[in-house]
């Protein structure tokens, strides 16, 4: 019997995706909450709140309750999860859902407990956690049950998880708090230093998505970026090239490459041979940064490819894990 109360949640720093058994990914929204400080009431959640980032009056603040893959504001996270679970299921659901939540591979027991508690408070009747690289591998369509090494590099908003997976388990893994948000911050710093222009995180994200690149490409893209001139204090527009974004992102991407390198160094030789043969798979929203797979390939000498739909890989993997649990155990 198909149970529509089995849910997989990719609780990301930048966005939350909800997967319902039998339906697939039904919801993808930014993990942003706007609330009124005077009344302490939530004004908007998700996309509506994201549009308010950096644009709110004094009494309203738009916050991201998850920072670097970890809950930084417990109460707001709980309310946000409750809202998304209800939105995904529809109001008509009487039965409390069973939920599998995805967490970065480096989280501590305390952080895991916080995620579990927030999920129970949001209305789950049972909660299981799954590590991000394993969920990403399942979502990318890799058969992780074989005794064969697979390397997954999952670059999210707040954390990058790098893992070697074999026989349904993680052999070696590393989680670093350098990811998509750090790409944005690097662009903000670069614009400030090079052009004396102050831009917000939304503008930086737009710049990253439209022309951001990690590896020198033959064609050069340009984009007009608007912000505040730090010298005159007035609004100003600057034309930025994709080559400049490569320069701005150099340090941040180097940290990810370094971690991939150190994971490869610790990998048992048989599995390292498998990875050299099969290549590295990139997942997560950060994998969409142009030229990233070329850069990793150039630095490691291992063929690198991006999963088919990197943004939803983790959510789909978490959802498939829900189905595996339900099918094999009947109950969690």
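^ Assign residues to that structure.
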């Amino acid at each position: 019997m198909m149970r529509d109360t089995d849910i997989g949640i990719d609780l990301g720093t930048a966005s939350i995706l909800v997967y319902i058994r039998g339906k697939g990914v039904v919801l993808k929204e930014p993990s942003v909450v706007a609330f009124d400080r005077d009344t302490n009431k939530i004004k908007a959640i998700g996309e509506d709140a994201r549009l308010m980032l950096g644009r709110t009056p004094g009494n309203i603040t738009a916050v991201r309750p998850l920072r670097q893959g970890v809950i930084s504001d417990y109460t707001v996270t709980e309310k946000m999860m409750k809202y998304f679970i209800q939105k995904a299921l529809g109001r008509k659901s009487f039965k409390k859902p069973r939920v599998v939540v995805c967490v970065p591979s480096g989280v501590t027991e305390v952080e895991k407990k916080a995620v579990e508690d927030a999920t129970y408070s949001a209305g789950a009747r049972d909660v299981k956690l799954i590590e991000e690289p394993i969920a990403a591998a399942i979502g990318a369509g890799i058969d992780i049950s074989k005794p064969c090494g697979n390397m997954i590099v999952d670059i999210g908003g707040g954390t990058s998880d790098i893992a070697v997976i074999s026989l349904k388990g993680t052999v070696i893994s590393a989680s670093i708090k350098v990811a998509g948000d750090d790409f944005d911050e690097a662009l903000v710093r670069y614009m400030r230093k090079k052009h004396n222009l102050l831009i917000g995180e939304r503008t930086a994200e737009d710049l990253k998505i439209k022309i951001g690149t990690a590896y020198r490409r033959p064609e050069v893209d340009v984009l007009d970026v608007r912000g505040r001139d730090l010298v005159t204090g007035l609004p100003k527009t600057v034309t930025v090239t994709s080559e400049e974004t490569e320069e701005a992102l150099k340090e941040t991407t180097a940290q990810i490459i370094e971690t991939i390198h150190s994971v490869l160094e610790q990998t048992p030789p048989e599995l390292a041979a498998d990875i050299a043969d099969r290549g590295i798979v990139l997942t997560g929203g950060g994998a969409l940064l142009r030229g990233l797979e070329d850069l990793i390939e150039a630095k490691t000498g291992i063929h690198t490819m991006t999963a088919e739909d990197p943004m939803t890989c983790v959510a789909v993997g978490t959802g498939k894990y829900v189905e595996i649990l339900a099918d094999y155990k009947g109950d969690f």
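The chain has a mean pLDDT of 90.
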